[in-house]
Automatic annotation (TrEMBL):
Gene Ontology MF: a single term: phosphorelay sensor kinase activity
Organism: marine sediment metagenome
EC numbers for this chain: 2.7.13.3
UniProt xrefs under Gene3D superfamilies: 1.10.287.130, Histidine kinase-like ATPase, C-terminal domain, PAS domain
Descriptive protein name: histidine kinase
Domain Histidine kinase: 86-267
Catalytic activity: ATP + protein L-histidine = ADP + protein N-phospho-L-histidine
SMART domains, alphabetized: HisKA (SM00388)
Lineage start: unclassified sequences, metagenomes, ecological metagenomes
Pfam families: HATPase_c, HisKA
Residues annotated as domain PAC: 18-68
């Protein structure tokens, strides 16, 4: 065949031909895949052209099945992403109406007592939390379709870390956990403030939630060349090597007796 002839030409020129895959048809109409590699064998009195073939039909069939399964999984993933995106956007309108009516009741009805006002404030706080969840779902669906835009600008990372620490101090106090800050007073770098805020807040919340009482959480900053490393170290039981992989799956969760470790991963 032409493939064998081309391999022979390359060998004559002193080149080493790449292994080739051929699709062959038997007389009964069935298909067989073979891998072919050509070489020159030099004997004492003659030079031979050698072709070694191997039946790779099982490998090709397995590749075909895997490709079809990957296609099906991608289609399911696309449907899930589209559903999350549409559902998130659809939830925003009724949520805005609920929040709007709660505001209207507070403004119009001056006869509300303190208990009723607290109920309305509870509704509004719930709306704010739901808005945050919806925002995360929308950003997650954008990330999966590579539509998310990272807008970065130079900010003080040290100030953001201190803000996050202040917000979780009350939670840490309930578990008698101290937070030790060992960071530079000024860390100017480019980052997306909202997303890094979410990352640091989640890490601190988990560190507090899954650390024993009367322990210390250490936060440290380090400059390594052009990179800035922020480490948050707690006194939890840590992870196995397999668990380190699991936590970076979306909505990854590790079960630990009566507790678990939740991670919402968007990247």
């Amino acid at each position: 065949s032409a493939i064998v002839f081309n391999s022979l030409i390359k060998l004559i020129k002193g080149e080493i031909p790449e292994p080739q895959e051929l699709k062959l048809h038997r007389k009964d109409g069935s298909v067989i895949w073979v891998s072919m590699i050509a070489s020159i064998v030099r004997l004492k009195k003659e030079t031979l052209f050698q072709v070694i073939t191997q039946d790779i039909s099982k490998i090709k069939n397995a590749e075909k099945i895997l490709k079809e399964q990957n296609k099906e999984l991608q289609e399911v993933s696309n449907l899930k992403t589209e559903f999350l995106s549409r559902a998130s956007h659809e939830l925003k309108t009724p949520l805005a109406i609920i929040n709007g009516y709660a505001d209207l009741i507070k403004l119009k009805d001056k006869k509300l007592n303190q208990d009723q006002l607290k109920m309305i404030e509870g509704i509004q706080k719930g709306c704010v939390r739901l808005e945050g969840i919806i925002h995360k779902l929308i950003e997650s669906s954008k990330l999966e379709t590579s539509k998310i835009e990272l807008h970065t600008k130079e900010e003080d990372l040290s100030l953001l870390i201190k803000l996050c620490v202040n917000e979780v101090k009350s939670l840490a106090k309930t578990r008698e956990i101290d937070i030790n800050l060992d960071i530079a007073n000024l860390i100017l770098t480019k980052f997306n403030k909202d997303q890094i805020y979410e990352v640091i807040s989640n890490l601190l919340s988990n560190a507090i939630k899954y650390s024993p009482h009367n322990t210390i959480i250490n936060i440290k900053s380090e400059v390594n060349g052009t990179s800035i490393i922020i480490s948050i170290k707690d006194s939890g039981i840590g992870f196995t090597e397999d668990e380190k992989i699991t936590i970076f799956n979306k909505f990854g969760k590790i079960a630990r007796e009566s507790s678990g470790f939740d991670v919402f991963s968007e990247g």
